[in-house]
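pinned: reference chain
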Amino acid sequence: MATRTIKRPSSTPLSERLRPPQTPRLAKKFVALSLFWRTFFLLALLLASGVFAWVQTFRALEFEPRAVQAAQQIASLVNIARAALLGTDGINRIAIIKSVSTLDSVKLTPREPTDKWEPYEPDRFQRVIERELRDQLGPDTIVASSMNGTPGLWVGFSIARDSFWLKVDPTRVGPMSTSTIILWVSIALLATVLGSAGIARLINRPLKDLSFAASRIREGEYDSRLDETTMTSEIRQVNMGFNRMARELAKVEQDRAVMLAGISHDLRTPLSRLRLEAEMSVQDEEAKSNMAMDIDQLDAIIDKFMDYARPGEVKLVSVDVATVVAREAAAFRDTSQIRIQSKVAPDTRVLADDVELGRVLQNLFENARRYGRSTETGIARVVVSFARTGPWVIITVRDHGQGVDPKKIDQLTTPFFRGDAARTAATGAGLGLAIVEKALQRMGGAFELANATEGGLLAHIRLKRA
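pinned: its structure tokens
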């Protein structure tokens, strides 16, 4: 018998046990990171590190020249003021001082012995400016950050016996502002993110195409083809190899279908002749009946092989479960061997293929007829019930036989395996439950086998609600 991987009886609720395996959320994130996002984050980290390194290098390289340039500008203003004051008398000097003081960014005032000033050395940039000003204007030059409580960049210089203060707006000689740096870095980081996303997408596009094509191959669509003209030689070789593999698989699948069809035809022809010869030549009715039963069994085994090898394409539509159960149960008319009771509500509908779902139920009923008979009555009593759990419908087919050895229940879905030791005589090919499992896989469902607490075997079918 056969099916998907079967689980052992558990105290976990049925709806939880029948739920398809879920990849942990963290694992899903890791899978995503291993492809597009991992490439994106690595590129973004690399480029962002380059941006910050560039900013630090730029600041270090422009620091000294900017301070020297600021000091030269201030020294030029001082020299201009000194030249203007040097060539005039006392009265004209007062007029010049007043006219200069009307400017917004520059102020000129006499320096008194009682003036109180604070040194202009709060940071490295301003210490460089002060050093350059002393080098250009003389060692007796005073550079202050405030004078008599008035903040600003004050430069004290002397002309003969007279001393003066020249005030300069300090904002014009400062280093590059933080807001400007932040703006540059923000633009660079935005370009980094966009560039990383574009590069990561280009890098991972061949992998995405390969993954999509592989998924189609897995679903039995062998016509997937990858681009063999891409400019990247490694990817081109991979694509060419994949296309060759797809063509070989398609050829193998075609040969398999032809072989199975030929085997079916070639075997059924001599079986038909054997049936005819038995009817005409064998006089013993019991022997004739036994031969007919053997021929029917061989014919049924061929059908099982053909069902198991059936292609995987199905069309999912809304199917009335109760109707399909009633239709398939009607085929088992011999009440001396099996009796089927349906408890499925008439409005129960699932997304499935009508023929495939009928084949699933037919195999489960046949499995119950062969192996699920009661030891007391010799009749297989089968009950079909259902349950709705969220977006799923769980159809349960239960017999009231002896059940299955728990050690072997996981193997019942393996093709050609029979649990002979636990059940009655086995005459099938060992493909019934394998066909059930494969059919449910094609319809996006799930299958589970378990021993019932009161005895017998439980077969749970899970399909999407329509």
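why pinned: The domain at 236-311 is CATH 1.10.287.130 (Helix Hairpins). Confidence is low (pLDDT under 50) at residues 1-32, 421-426.
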